Amino acid sequence: MDIELAKKFYSQMLLIRRFEEKCIELYSSEKIRGFLHLYIGEEAIAVGVMHALSADDAVIATYREHGHALARGISAKSIMAEMYGKVEGCAGGRGGSMHIFDAKSRFYGGNAIVGGGLPIAVGMALADKMMKRDRVTACFFGDGAVAEGEFHESLNLASLWQLPVLFICENNYYAMGTALEFSESEVNLSKKAASYRINSFQVDGMDVTQVAESAKNAVEDIKSGKGPVFLECLTYRFRAHSMFDAELYRKKTEVNEWKDKGPLVTFKKNLEERGLWSKIKAQEIEDEITKTIDDAVTFAENGTLEPISDLEKFVYSPEEVQ
Amino acid sequence: MSEFLMPSLGADMKSAILMQWKVKVGDRVTKGQVIAEIETSKGVIEIEVFQDGIIEKILVEPETECNVGTPLALIRSDSDEENITVSSVTAEQAQTEAIPLAPLEKATPDRYQDTTPPQRIKASPAARKKARELGLDLADLAKTSEGEIHLSQIESVAKTELKTPSADKMRQAIASAMSLSNAEIPHYYLSASVNMSPALSWLEEINKNLTIKARILPAAMIIRAVVLALEAVPELNGYWQEGYHQVCKEIHPGIAIALRKKGVITPALLGAKDMNLSQTMQALDDLIMRTRAGKLRGAELTQQSITITNLGDLGVENVYGVIYPPQVALIGLGKIIDTPWVQENKVIVQKVMKATLAGDHRATDGRTGALFLDKFNRILQNPKELL
Amino acid sequence: MNKEQIKTSIIQQIRIIAPDLEYDDIPSDENLQNALEIDSYDFLHLLTALYEQLGVQVPEVDYGKVDTLNRMAEYFAERIKLN
Amino acid sequence: MKENNQTTYREAVREGIKNAMQKDDRVFLMGEDVGRYGGCFAVSKGLLEEFGKERIIDTPLCESTFTGAGIGAAMNGMRPIVEIMTVNFSLLALDQIMNNAATLLHMSGGQFNVPLVIRMSTGGGKQLAAQHSHSLEGWYAHIPGLKVLTPATVQDAYSMIELALNDPDPVLIFENSLLYNSQGTLDTNAKPLPIKKAVVKRPGKDLTILAYGINLFKALDAAKILEKEEIDAEVIDLRSLRPLDDETIMNSVKKTHRVMIVDEGWRSGSISAEIMARINEQAFFELDAPMGRVCSAEVPFPYAKHLEDAALPQPVKIVAMAKQIMEEA
Q1: In terms of domains, do B253 and B345 share one?
Q2: CA–CA separation, A171 and A168 (whole Å)
Q3: For residue D46, what are the contacts with CB-CB under 8 A and spacing of at least 6?
Q4: Domain limits at B153?
Q5: Helix or strand (DSSP H, E) at B46
Q6: Closest partner residue to D254 among B111, B120, B123, by Cβ?
Q7: At A114, which CATH number?
Q8: What whole-number distance in Å separates Cα of residue D72 and Cα of residue A128?
Q9: Which of B353, B383, D21, D274 has the smallest number of Cβ neighbours within 10 A?
């Protein structure tokens, strides 16, 4: 772990944290509408996994995907503008918080149907295998998706056809308001995935270095043809499922326990043990991030609305392409 | 200085109850710190402040319901001047600008491009159906109207060129007229016996040197007599409308014509004043034929200025008719029958017809009626006047 | 033209004026105007049509001789033989 | 294929797939029992031997995921043909089809195309009872972002494969299961009609009958019967339910002024209802009589033959409806 890597991990995680906090403020003042699912508390997974992926690999995520998008390199400006419904947003203001897309970084979207992205990831990996391309499709989903039929169908196909897909399960112990023990007979999700003869690992989702390490090994295994890998990252979301949620389903004490071992806290302790904390100039990173986020808000505020006359554009491809 | 507002937690949240403050005036607060609890439809939710500062003033007491965007407290930030915090944006500004509605009309696709070929008559199905029912020809109607032909146009045309309405509709029309008439018109009745023998034998002489096609029926002669009498006594020929009596310059007598098995209709013999006897006969012949063929013109159904019912054919002697509003008189002509008649104090047999007059007392009185019957009778006693 | 043929053409003319009547509705020896609800106007029309078809005019004075179907047929039969 | 290019609908579909796979190695076929079994309706018999298991892929029974995999592969450079055995099982894949395939291009602001072809059999008439006799192509025609084709003739069964594969957007092809054995002429180098074009199969002047899929042949049978009763019916093969060929439909209505539709779907919210609404909007003044339609009875399809026949559109029903419309003129 050198200073540059430490700076990268810390600033990416902090950017996500501050970005999501700004979203709360903007949502409260009605600047952002629709649904908003925040990644506060789970930053280490996105940052760790994205570190292991190459630009050539593909990413498929869920509706809680601001962190993945930022970690994948999509600009705070284009994501913020998207949530303002502006045409400068990464999907032209048509997707909103739950549907962030970016062709350049092969970010194939947030998906608002729980488990909806898994079959697509399988298909993308199938194409890569058929065309003998040396790249991985990383598929993020939560513990809620494990209960969907498509989880079983996708893991089975991926293993059956030995497809180059990296399944990353962000197990934050709650599917919206239903705790894990109320939705899964087998709560050890990596053990469940192993039953499909898939190499499955359980890792501390709060420790960015562990996540990055496991993800790197997984990608290497996949690219050496050992078939799909299943990474279960144990984590916790510090905020409600979405903005309008009284969190009746969990205790504050539990939330506070997890906050004490959150991704930023854990990483800071880790850097202090290695004498790196003082070297990364945390305050500079903080100020730079504040500026990035303020610029993003200004960019979004000044964004323009897509003309209504474009409403039907892209329902089908333009005539000439057909 | 900035306001701490009641936050919006979702599109379907319009207001919430401030339950409890976690801080008091003078307390220092830091960005993200929970400073109050609110009660929403989903339960109690903690709300946080979005920048560092000191609680300057509490604006809302606990247990108060406030709309989203209501200022709850004032927060003085450390260095008040430099950092302008977003939260100071009031609720109104906070509203993302309303989506421009103007283009919404443009966004609604126009219903359809009218591509009906010119030669196709654009008539609505309702209009076509009505036209078919009334035997109206759409083609000539289309010539006079541009654009689409709707039911309303068919119905207005029907008023002027009505085909004989079907029997039951006609019954209904007569029924409503009769009930109105009975209810509103104060009728008075007069009758007189008219010796028809002289006129009939005069007519027979005339018919002798006419071919059968030009033969004149007694009815035509009688109608001619009525018209001449009305010229002398014009008050009976007109309308009672909106409370006043209006005498009609033209004389359009409604003639009762029987339709086989379908009741009686009284189309007007338009412009009877300007017809001599044979012209009256031809006009009557034409009117009866068109009535039975159902090809009457609208005016013939609406312009009657008086009505003549000669139900004599059916053996009824006295005809006490009911006036058709808004007309003011009706003349009933009975059956011509052989009757003992006193002449130069000898009793001889003559062909006698009972003529009755129903009058609207609002418009005319018995004296006018009597004058008319007298004139009518004298004309028939001197038939040459009829030519 | 014999009497029967004349009778049928009279009936044909009557059915033109009163299409609702069938052949057998028309009685041979009853007053046509009363039995068939034919008014003076229709009766004149009937005679005019028969004049055009058979060439015989019935003057008003002879109305009494043509009040039934049979008498009318006879009346026409005699006059057709003459001219 | 026989010499004078007479062939069956099934062979025409196979020929279309084979031809496409030979020309473009991005094309592959994926679905239940398409490989070793040779296809539930024997459409893909022999293809496994010719192209191998890498391109003729038997899938487990997981409609949602193998359809989703088709979407993913299409987004990642392939030209997959996903065969869902019957429209009845496609309900399990409806979320992937509607929320992903039909939506991604628009929702991503034009970034990601889904050049995917999904074929499925459809329709009743084989006493398979309620769960195996659905005719839901009209449903799918409700979804913007999809194209819905209903090949009735042997020629279309062949040429629509190529048309669909060349389209950068998802195309669904519905093959009525009773048509697989039907015979017809196939000209493999005939230039295919564009996807959107409806075709007048029997010109006529008194009444327009709109039909698609197997109903085209029921409509043509009915037209023969009507001919004997001096009713000259114009029969049109819609070929595509989305997009609908409004122009051809309205031109025919403007010619005959009387129109009826044969649609095996249930009448409520069906494609026939949509077509009647469009005629109402675009050719209202052309109508001389109320429009008519013959649809399936609104019942779960019964097993017993006499009941199923009563539930299905039949030529005798089409004739009766046509006469009713003619009388109201």
Answers
A1: yes
A2: 9
A3: D14, D38
A4: 125-160
A5: strand B43-48
A6: B120
A7: 3.40.50.970
A8: 10
A9: D274
SS3 D321: helix
D132 is an active site residue: yes
Tell me which residues of chain A have a C-beta less than 8 Å from any C-beta of chain B. Answer: 21, 24-31, 33-34, 84-85, 240, 242-246, 248, 297, 305, 307-309, 311
CA–CA separation, B218 and B224 (whole Å): 10
C-alpha to C-alpha distance for B207 and D189, rounded to whole angstroms: 91
> Where do the domains of chain C lie, and which CATH numbers do they carry?
3-82 (1.10.1200.10)
Instruction: State the residue for tokens 């009728």.
Output: B187
- Domain housing D154: 6-185
Q: Is residue B109 part of a domain?
A: no
* Contact between chains at D107 and A116 (C-beta distance less than 8 A): no
For residues D58, D63, D65, D71, the Cα torsion angle rounded to the nearest 10 degrees is 90
Bridge partners, residue C63, by sequence: none
Number of independent structural domains in chain D:
2
Amino acid identity at D116: L
Q: How many domains does chain A have?
A: 1
Asked if D72 and D18 count as a contact pair (C-beta separation under 8 A), the reply is no
Which residues 132-161 of A have a C-beta within 8 angstroms of D?
Answer: 137, 149-150, 152-154, 156-157, 160-161
A27: how many CB neighbours lie within 10 A of its CB? 24
Residues contacting B349, CB < 8 A, separation 6+ = B338, B339, B340, B341
CB atoms within 10 A of CB B207: 17
D126 and D252 share one domain = no
Which residues are paired to D295 by β-bridges? D263
Residues 6+ apart with CB under 8 A from D202: D220, D223, D233, D234, D235
Q: List the structure tokens of B157.
A: 């045309």
Q: Which domain holds residue A125?
A: 3-310
Number of H helices, E strands in chain B: 11, 18
Residue B298 tokens read as: 């609208």
d(C-alpha D319, C-alpha A137), whole Å = 57
| Cβ atoms D270, D138 nearer than 8 A | yes
Alpha helices (H) along chain B? 91-94, 102-107, 125-134, 138-144, 151-160, 167-184, 197-208, 218-232, 277-293, 298-302, 366-381
